[in-house]
Structures are given as C-alpha cells and as structure tokens.
Amino acid sequence: MFEEINNNVCRYVAFSTEELQIFNNLLKHKMFPKKACLLRAGEVCNFEGFIVKGSLRKYYIDDNGNEVIIQFGIENGWISDIASFSDRKPGNLFIECLEDTELLLLDPNSKESLLSQVPKFERFYRKLVEKNVSTMQNRLYFSIAKTAEQKYLDFLEHYPSIPQRVPQHYIASYLGMTPEFLSKVRARLLKK
Amino acid sequence: MFEEINNNVCRYVAFSTEELQIFNNLLKHKMFPKKACLLRAGEVCNFEGFIVKGSLRKYYIDDNGNEVIIQFGIENGWISDIASFSDRKPGNLFIECLEDTELLLLDPNSKESLLSQVPKFERFYRKLVEKNVSTMQNRLYFSIAKTAEQKYLDFLEHYPSIPQRVPQHYIASYLGMTPEFLSKVRARLLKK
DNA sequence: CGCGACGTTGATTTGCCTCAACGATTGTGG
DNA sequence: CCACAATCGTTGAGGCAAATCAACGTCGCG
Q1: B115: which chain A residues are within 8 Å (Cβ-Cβ)?
Q2: Helix (H) / strand (E) containing B70
Q3: What residues of B are in contact with residue A172 (Cβ under 8 Å)?
C-alpha cells in the first residue's frame, strides 16, 4: 500500500527503509466516495493527502457563486490547502472527490512529529512545494497570455487522462472559460 | 546591513545569532543599476536574492513578444527563478531591475552549504515557498475570476508603493491587461 | 532642442460570455 | 426494469469587456 507514496517521496530525497517506516506509520489510510467533500471554505485544513487512487478537485467559489477550479489531483499527486494547513487558519478553498478516492493522509501533529523525527522530510516538502510554485507560475502565465484553444491543447498534453474521467465543464472551469465556449473550441479543433 | 534579512528569516523560523552569522557570511552583497538584467530566458538561474533596496520585475515573453510580468520584487522581498535555481536547468524567465537595486545573493553552492551547516534553514525555505504558492494561487484566481477594475483595486491595496515607483504599463502587464485599458479603468475610477 | 518613452483618448474589432433551447446520457426511485 | 428527472454537452443569437490600432500631448533626458 505504501509503495507509490514511498517512490514518490524518494524521487525528491533519498530515504532509508527505517525513515520510510516512521513516515508510513504516521499516515492514515482512508477511502472517500465520489462527491465527498474533504474541505470547505471557512474551515481549517487539517490534512495533506497523497492520492493512491481516484481524483479530486480544489476550487474557489467566486462572488457570483461560480466555481473556479485551481487544481486537479490524480493518482500519485498531493492535495491540500497548504496555506490553511500550514498557518492553521481558515481558508477559502473547497476540496472534493470526483471519483471514489483512496488517500493517505497526514494531519498537522503527525507532520510535526515526522519532521522532528526525520528532519530530512523538511527538504522533501520544500522540493514538493517548489514544484508547486513553478506549476502555478506557469498556469498564471497561460491564463494571461494564451488563447482558449492553446490552453485546452496544453491541458490535453499535460493531463491526457483527465478528459476521460471528469465532466468537461470542470475542465472548462480549470481553464478559466465557460463550458459552452470550451465546447465550441473543441468543435473548431475537430474540423481541422 | 544584515538587519532586514535577519528579521525576515526570523519571521518564519527562530535562529540564533551564530546561525545567522553563518548565513550572513555566505551572502554576497551586490548593487545593480536600473534596467540591469539579472536573468534571461534560456539561462540557468544561479541566485536567490533578498532585496535590501530597490525593485525588480520577473517576467515571461510570450509568443507575440509581449512581456508578461509574474512578480514585482521590492524591499524585504525575495526574487529568483525557483524552478531553474533548484533544478539547475535553463528557465523561461527574465529578471530585471526597475530601479537602482541592492541585493543580498545566495548561489547554489552557498545554499547547499547553508543547509548542511544549519538544517533549520530547510524549514525556513519551505515556509517561504509555501507563502509563495498561496500568493500565486490567489493571483491565478484573481486572473480568472475578477474584472480588470477589481484586479487593479486589489493591486493598489496590496502594493500601495509600486504605482509611484514603476511605469504604469508594467502594472498593466502584471494585471494581465493592456496599458490602454488600465488607463481607461483608472479614468473610470476617478469619476467616482 | 529634439527624440523616445509614457499615458490618454477615441473608433473599431474580437474573443469570450450570457442566455436559451435542445438532444443524449445517466441514475434513481417506484 | 422502466419512467422520469437531473446532469451534461452542443449549438445559435446577441452582448459585452477588453484588445487593437491610431493619433496626440507631456515629460524627462541626451
């Protein structure tokens, strides 16, 4: 059960079997059904989750009540509201399962315990968050500088499995356009 | 000279005078004139900079040759291309001084040396990057969900000093709109 | 002084949104 | 297992926010 997550953390930093043991013992394994809501705006996020199986979305709800999807999470990815988790303060984000989902969860106390027992994990988390920053930065760039068509094509390259797994209007939300318009973009692409 | 930077790092993690000594000794103090270019797309970023005085911008250049500003850096802030610095790979970003600027720089070797001498700095960097992620996330949200007017007002709140210091068309670029349109937004706001 | 960088304003265009109607598919309770 | 509702994707007509293009005034600077 811990194979994927251990491979994942070792991609950033090399850990011994003992260190991984400590890590694995702190994780909680949980299953969630499709549409389960793990976090709501106004709540303090008390988990960092590794996705063993399934998919989730992380989103804001804007002033008009529209959902704005910031991130999709799939197998081998991580999901959390970092700001809320780290500062122990209420956040503005929602996190929800798009499919039946299997997670390995770390709560704040366990994380502190992990970091004090195996300080090398600080490095792992730093690297993980660094990756996150550059993804976000690139996403911001695309949001500003690219056309709807370019955004969609880039998304297909980057997340080829998602269109088969989640409703199209979620992808539109992630790309910052209306579902109707994404549909038209796709129609245009098919003609080519 | 090290007062600001030491206060800054201690905001995230408590360090002893000795630890700060080690840190300070690894920093290089440098001055750059206005318009100096510290990093170009295609280059590997070999610095993390703390801004003692002055201001900078970090930006992409898109397919049409337009600049897209991702970040302004001012006093007490940090600037770098994290992805390029961390992976030692060429990046896509430019970093340029907007005013005469005074920086404290850390190169990759010095950073490694710092982290091995004072591992607590891993924690500091993790916290710093976490803050960065949530800023980026919020910026992405605004870019997608808010009107030009809301973006500009939010910018004024967040960076009240910048409009007096940098040309307005850079602010437009940061907000993801044309300089002409920002000018019209401002005109509309003045009428109210 | 004269040039280049900058901000403003107006006319026009356009990429994307809004609203509405319509099939297809899914899923759920009877 | 069917019937009906809900969810979803598509298409079209019309509208709007922001982009484009162009002209012009101002300022700072070599």
Answers
A1: 123
A2: strand B67-74
A3: none
